[in-house]
Design goal:
The complex is a heterodimer of chains A (575) and B (171). With 575 residues, chain A is of the alpha/beta class. Chain A contains 22 helices and 20 strands. Helix content of chain A is 37%, strand content 16%. In chain A, helix 17 links the parallel strand 15 and strand 16. The longest helix of chain A has 15 residues. Chain B has two domains: 83 residues, ACT domain (Alpha-Beta Plaits); 72 residues, Alpha-Beta Plaits (2-Layer Sandwich), CATH 3.30.70. Helix content of chain B is 29%, strand content 39%. Chain B has four helices and nine strands, in the order E-H-E-E-H-E-E-H-E-E-H-E-E. In chain B, strands 5, 6, 7, 8 and 9 form a five-stranded antiparallel sheet that branches. In chain B, a hairpin with a 3-residue loop joins strand 6 and strand 7. Chain B is elongated. Chain B starts with 7 loop residues before the first strand and ends in an 8-residue tail after the last strand. Classes of the chains: A alpha/beta (575), B alpha+beta (171). Chains A and B meet through loops of A and helix 1 and helix 2 of B.
C-alpha cells in the first residue's frame, strides 16, 4: 500500500483563495460556473494558476446557477457556482431559489466586501446571507480564514445529504487574501444536523401490509425518487405488485414512461387516467413527492377515498398539505429496499383479482386518449414537434425545459424511460431556466444529445448564453416553440379572463435565425407542418453544432387536460 | 375548517448554535411561513456555544406540528421541545416604573409590590421602579392593580420556560 502523503501541501500556508481552489480539487469538483468581479479577484487568480477545476464563464450570474443546477440534476453531483458580491450575488438569487424549490444540491460561493467594510454600504455590498436566507438550505459568512476549509466542507455536506438543497458560502475579500495552513477536512460532523436515512421498519411493514391488501392502489412518485437514485427499486416494487404508477413533473423518469403500468404525469396538466386513478384509489403511496398544489388541485377533493402512505426524507413534508395515515421518514432508496425485502418475505401476494378489475377501469380511462390533438391542422402543432424530437432522439436525449406550455407538452409527449433525463424548474417555475440548464447538462455529458425546449418568451430571458455555448462548443439543440405568445398566460386569459390577452402577446420578436447566426450558431426556421420532420432530422444530424430551431406553432393551441384552479383532479377540462 | 377555532397557545424551547444570524433564521422562518410569534426570548446557555430560545406561538395542532418540524429542519437548531406537551414552568420578568409621589402613594405602591413579591429596585423623589417575576397572568394582574394612571413605563422580557422534573433538555 502506498501512502500518498504530500508533505509540501501540509506545510505551506495558502491564501484563502488558494484554499478554495485546492478544496474544490480535493472535493472532486470538476466544473464550476461563474462570473468574476472585484470581490472574487483573488479566487479567480487562484483558479488561473491551477488546471484541475475547470471554470465555465457564463454571461449572467443567473445562468451560472441554472447551469450548475442542470449539471447537478443530470449527475447527482453538487453543482458549484462562483459569483462576486453585490449584483453578482443578487443575480444568482433566482437560480438559488429554483434549486431550493426542487431540492437540488448546489454550493454557491459569493464574494463579499472585506470584513472591515461589511455594514458600511461599501461598493457592491449586499447582505447576501440575509437576502438568500429564505431560499437556501443553509448559508454561511466566513469571517476567519481558519474557518474557511471546514465551512466549505460543511457546505458540501449539507447540500448533498438529507433533503438536498443549495448552500451559500459568502466569503469576504480579505479572507481570500489571508494565509493559513490547509488540510482537506475529510469528514465533518454537526451536532445539529443528522438526517434520518433509514425508515422505521414497523412503519414499512404496516405500509406493505396495506399495499398487499389494496384493491385500487396507486404509486404517486416525485423528485425524491430521482434525487435518491431509486428508480430501479421503484420499478421493482411496482412490478412485483402490479401497481399503476404516476409521476409528478419532478418525478418523470423515475419509472419507465413506456411501461404498461405507467399512467403518465398527474396534476393540473396530468393525464386523465392518472388523475382519475388518484380520485378513485383506495390506497395512495406517495414516494418522494410533496403534495404540491399543482399536483393535488383542490386538496379537499384529492384522493378522497384513499388511505395514504407517505415516504419522504423530510419530516416537514409529511402531513404538511395532506394528512397521511402511514408516514415513513427516510431516504426513498433505503425505504424501498426494505419494502422489496418485506414484499418478498410476505406470505401472501397482492390482491390480484381486485387489481385485475382496477386495471380494467384504468384501461377504460386510458381509452379516453386525453393527449389527442388535431394532426391534420394547417399550422404546426407543438405536440407533434415534441413527438418528432422524441422519435429522432430515440428517447435517449436529456431534455431541459423552460417554463410554460412547452414544458407541459414536453412532459406529456417525451417519454422518459430513465431518470435524470428530464430537467425542468418544477417548484419555482423559472422562465429562462432551460438554456443555461442545458449547458450544465452538456458539460456533464459531453457526448450526449442535449435538447433545450423553450418558448419565444422564456428563451429571451437567458438568450445571452448562446455566447457561452459558442465559447465552449456546446452542441445543444434548442427547440423554440414560437407562438408569439406567452402561451400559458394566454391560455389562462382565454379560459378565465374572457380572452382579454393582457400583455401576453410578444410583439417585435427578434429574427431568431439571424440571432443564432450572430452568436455563431446554426438557425433553422420552420413554418409548415410538412417541413417539421426533415428540419428536426437535419438539426439533430448536426452533432457538433448548436442548432436553434425557430418553429412557428399554432398560437391557439392549449395544454390539455387541465384542472382549473380550485377544482378536484377528476374535474378536468378535456379537449 | 377555521384555523382560528382550535388555535392553542404553545410555548416552545429551542436549543440553537450560538452563531450570528441564529435569531434571524428563526424569526425569518416564522414570517416566511406566516406563523405567529407572540413572544421570543433568547440568551446564551451555560455552554456559550449554544443559545436557548423560548418562543410562544398560537396555532392549531397541525400548524404547531409544522412549526416544530420546520424549526427542527433549520440546520443550526440542535433541539426543539414543545413544553406545552408536558408539565412545565413559565416565568417572565417585568420592570415597571410607576408614579410614586407623597407618603401615602409611596406606601401604597410599596405595599402592592410586596403583595406580588416584587422588589423596588430604583427610587426617585417621584417614582419607584419595581421588578416582578411570574407567569404572564400574574404580571397582567399586577399591572391591572397598579392602574394605568400610575404607570409611567413598562418592559417585559417574554416568558422563559423549563420542564418540570429532573429531565433536562440536553444536546
Amino acid at each position: 500500500m502506498v501512502f500518498r502523503f504530500d508533505l509540501e501541501r501540509l506545510k505551506v500556508e495558502l491564501t484563502g483563495a488558494e484554499i478554495i481552489a485546492r478544496f474544490l480539487e480535493d472535493e472532486g469538483v470538476e466544473h464550476i460556473f461563474g462570473y468574476p468581479g472585484g470581490a472574487v479577484l483573488h479566487i479567480y487568480d487562484a483558479l488561473y494558476k491551477q488546471d484541475k477545476v475547470k471554470h465555465i464563464l457564463v454571461r449572467h450570474e443567473q445562468a451560472a446557477t441554472h447551469a450548475a443546477d442542470g449539471y447537478a440534476r443530470s449527475t447527482g453531483k453538487p453543482g458549484v457556482v462562483l459569483v462576486t458580491s453585490g449584483p453578482g450575488a443578487t443575480n444568482a438569487v433566482t437560480g438559488i431559489a429554483t434549486a431550493y424549490m426542487d431540492s437540488i444540491p448546489m454550493v454557491v460561493l459569493t464574494g463579499q466586501v472585506p470584513t472591515a467594510l461589511i455594514g458600511n454600504d461599501a461598493f457592491q455590498e449586499v447582505d447576501t446571507v440575509g437576502i438568500t436566507r429564505p431560499c437556501v438550505k443553509h448559508n454561511f459568512l466566513v469571517k476567519d480564514v481558519n474557518e474557511l476549509a471546514v465551512t466549505l466542507k460543511k457546505a458540501f455536506y449539507i447540500a448533498t445529504t438529507g433533503r438536498p438543497g443549495p448552500v451559500v458560502v459568502d466569503i469576504p475579500k480579505d479572507v481570500t487574501a489571508a494565509r493559513v495552513r490547509y488540510t482537506h477536512p475529510r469528514k465533518v460532523t454537526m451536532r445539529s444536523y443528522n438526517p434520518t436515512v433509514k425508515g422505521h421498519i414497523r412503519q414499512v411493514r404496516k405500509a406493505v401490509g396495506m399495499m398487499l391488501s389494496a384493491k385500487r392502489p396507486v404509486l404517486y412518485t416525485g423528485g425524491g425518487v430521482i434525487l435518491d437514485d431509486a428508480a430501479e427499486l421503484l420499478t421493482e416494487v411496482a412490478h412485483a405488485l402490479d401497481f399503476p404508477v404516476t409521476n409528478t413533473s419532478m418525478g418523470l423518469g423515475g419509472f419507465p414512461a413506456t411501461d404498461r403500468q405507467f399512467l403518465g404525469m398527474l396534476g393540473m396538466h396530468g393525464n386523465y387516467e392518472a388523475n382519475m386513478a388518484i380520485s378513485h384509489c383506495d390506497l395512495l403511496v406517495a414516494i418522494g413527492a410533496r403534495f404540491d398544489d399543482r399536483v393535488t388541485g383542490n386538496i379537499a377533493k384529492f384522493a378522497p377515498k384513499a388511505k395514504i402512505i407517505h415516504i419522504d426524507i423530510d419530516p416537514a413534508s409529511i402531513s404538511k398539505n395532506v394528512k397521511v395515515d402511514v408516514p415513513i421518514v427516510g431516504s426513498v432508496n433505503a425505504v424501498l429496499a426494505d419494502m422489496v425485502a418485506e414484499i418478498k418475505a410476505a406470505e401472501r401476494g397482492p390482491n390480484t383479482s381486485a387489481l385485475g378489475e382496477w386495471w380494467q377501469q384504468i384501461e377504460e380511462w386510458r381509452g379516453v386518449d386525453c393527449l389527442r390533438y388535431d394532426k391534420s391542422a394547417e399550422k404546426i402543432k407543438p405536440q407533434y414537434v415534441l413527438q418528432k424530437v422524441y422519435e429522432v432522439t430515440k428517447g435517449e436525449a436529456f431534455v431541459c425545459s423552460d417554463v410554460g406550455q412547452h414544458q407541459m407538452w414536453a412532459a406529456q409527449f417525451y417519454k422518459f424511460d430513465k431518470p435524470r433525463r428530464w430537467i425542468n424548474s418544477g417548484g419555482l417555475g423559472t422562465m429562462g431556466f432551460g438554456l443555461p440548464a442545458a449547458m450544465g447538462v452538456q458539460f456533464a455529458h459531453p457526448d450526449a444529445t442535449v435538447v433545450c425546449v423553450a418558448g419565444d418568451g422564456g428563451i429571451q430571458m437567458n438568450i445571452q448564453e448562446l455566447a457561452t455555448c459558442l465559447q465552449y462548443g456546446l452542441p445543444i439543440k434548442v427547440i423554440c416553440l414560437n407562438n408569439s405568445y406567452l402561451g400559458m398566460v394566454r391560455q389562462w386569459q382565454e379560459f378565465f379572463y374572457e380572452e382579454r390577452y393582457s400583455h401576453s402577446y410578444m410583439e417585435s420578436l427578434p429574427d431568431f435565425v439571424k440571432l443564432a447566426e450572430a452568436y455563431g450558431h446554426v438557425g433553422i426556421k420552420v413554418e409548415k407542418p410538412e417541413d417539421v420532420d426533415a428540419a428536426v432530422e437535419r438539426a439533430f444530424a448536426m452533432k457538433d453544432r448548436l442548432v436553434f430551431m425557430n418553429i412557428i406553432t399554432d398560437a391557439t393551441e392549449n395544454v390539455y387536460p387541465m384542472v382549473p384552479a380550485g377544482a378536484g383532479l377528476d374535474e378536468m377540462i378535456l379537449i | 375548517m377555521n384555523n382560528h377555532d382550535n388555535a392553542k397557545r404553545h410555548i416552545i424551547s429551542i436549543l440553537i448554535e450560538n452563531e450570528a444570524g441564529a435569531l434571524s433564521r428563526v424569526a425569518g422562518l416564522f414570517s416566511a411561513r406566516g406563523y405567529n410569534i407572540e413572544a421570543l426570548t433568547v440568551a446564551a446557555t451555560e455552554d456559550p456555544s449554544l443559545s436557548r430560545m423560548t418562543l410562544v406561538s398560537k396555532g392549531t395542532d397541525e400548524i404547531i406540528e409544522q412549526i416544530l418540524k420546520q424549526l427542527n429542519k433549520l440546520i443550526d437548531v440542535v433541539k426543539v421541545l414543545d413544553l406545552t406537551q408536558g408539565d412545565h414552568i413559565e416565568r417572565e420578568l417585568l420592570l415597571v416604573k410607576v408614579r410614586a409621589v407623597g407618603h401615602e402613594q409611596r406606601q401604597e405602591v410599596y405595599r402592592l409590590a410586596d403583595v406580588f413579591r416584587g422588589h423596588v429596585i430604583d427610587i426617585t423623589e417621584n417614582s419607584y421602579t419595581i421588578e416582578l417575576t411570574g407567569d404572564g397572568k400574574k404580571l397582567d394582574a399586577f399591572l391591572a392593580t397598579l392602574g394605568e394612571s400610575q404607570i409611567l413605563e413598562t418592559v417585559r422580557g417574554g416568558p422563559s420556560g423549563i420542564s418540570r422534573g429532573d429531565k433536562a433538555m440536553h444536546t
